[in-house]
């Protein structure tokens, strides 16, 4: 009589009893995971739960302290990313793995260039890249260096690179973090195509609606341990949240009753090329104004003009009735404008520095005395935000690059909260952040609004826009194409209709 296990198909992938520690942190402790052929497994957990570490072990970027990996039942050693790729494992990391100075084609085929008689067959590379982007239904400039592409376009290049490997298993770590609803639908179509070919997909996302839309099964990690493995049918959103955070989370968007005051930030006829065209709006005291639209609509470009990171060709701005014309971010900060950027790694943090030093950078004017940083005052101030924001960090000298994505975001948030800015621009404030941490960030946004701050929130997550904003502006091709004042009565379809005008 065969055992029940013999009647089950052999998993494509197994990770058994995997453990990994870093200085001061036990990242994983005896974690196990299985993936079947043509299965979409959602890997869930709060920031710092160990998801990215587990996938880096699978992708050969980290070596485990204990445990084993099996492919088709055979034990394998993922001793390098090259080995993992050769075995059919493609990992799209949350942190992009692109060479900034190379274009999309060069990045996709880097180290695997088609060669004839010692020369790279560039024409073949370009045609294969075009075919990959046609599958994704996304247009990317093949000649532009990746450092000049938007975050969303860089994400698409990463996905195309993974597809070019003809992998048996594909890991997608927050693949939709920068994508709008329309792009996410295209991503799902691609995932289903991979499924139909028998390719297993491990899908990491903090957007729970995506889990129900695309996943067959969920594996949940908490504090570096495996806590649950469940089929998606029959699961509820509340159950997933409870498994992830270890407690009930009744409301995703905290209630807020704030009296909205007079305009604080005024923007009039702002222009910069075709990216920002005749943009005018105002943000009032206590107001959360959401700026949304499809990728490339000009949202971030508008924010950069306000913050002085770019110079407008024309237009004017005012803050509390005074002219605002920053020639550099330093001048915008001095005027009372803070900017939480979309790309926290490239623009929000100095990854090689400690989290304490990152916190202090925009606050040196009040942390310094006679040219020297008051280290004790800096530690005390940052310590308060570590507690308030629940930043998971073993000590303040931990390098920023060693934190999870969500905790990095909290460090960026902490430095601007300490700055006491009057206008705060949040560009994708919860990108790559888990549901528990999102709620905490939403609470902080509400508290800032209650203090009379003017909040400009740029977001691609339409539920977030509808759940947090007092008013919504929609952009398309550099212009504001619509305004929604009755946010509570609006739908995602209302926003999308304005976004494609």
* Average pLDDT metric: 88
Record field, number of beta strands = 24
Provide the CATH top-level class of the largest domain: Alpha Beta
- Unreliable runs: none
Strand-residue proportion: 25-35%
Main sheet summary = 6 strands, mixed
- Class by alpha and beta content: alpha/beta
CATH architecture of the largest domain: 3-Layer(aba) Sandwich
Give me the side-by-side strand order of the main sheet. Answer: 6-9-10-3-11-12
Tally of distinct domains: 2
Could you characterize what this model shows?
By secondary structure, this protein is α/β, with parallel strands linked by helices. It is 34% helix and 26% strand. It contains 18 helices and 24 strands. It has a six-stranded mixed sheet with strand order 6-9-10-3-11-12, sandwiched between helices. Helix 4 crosses helix 5 and helix 14 packs across helix 15. The protein is globular, with a radius of gyration of 23 Å. The relative contact order is 0.12. The model has no long low-confidence stretch (mean pLDDT 88).
Task: Describe the secondary-structure layout.
Layout: E1 13-22, E2 25-35, E3 40-44, H1 51-58, E4 66-71, E5 74-76, H2 81-86, E6 89-92, H3 104-108, E7 115-116, E8 119-120, H4 122-136, H5 151-163, E9 169-173, H6 181-196, E10 200-204, H7 208-214, E11 217-222, E12 225-231, H8 237-245, E13 263-272, E14 276-284, E15 288-293, H9 299-307, E16 314-319, E17 322-323, H10 329-335, E18 337-340, H11 344-348, H12 355-360, H13 364-367, E19 368-369, E20 372-373, H14 375-388, H15 405-419, E21 423-427, H16 435-450, E22 454-458, H17 462-468, E23 471-476, E24 479-484, H18 492-499
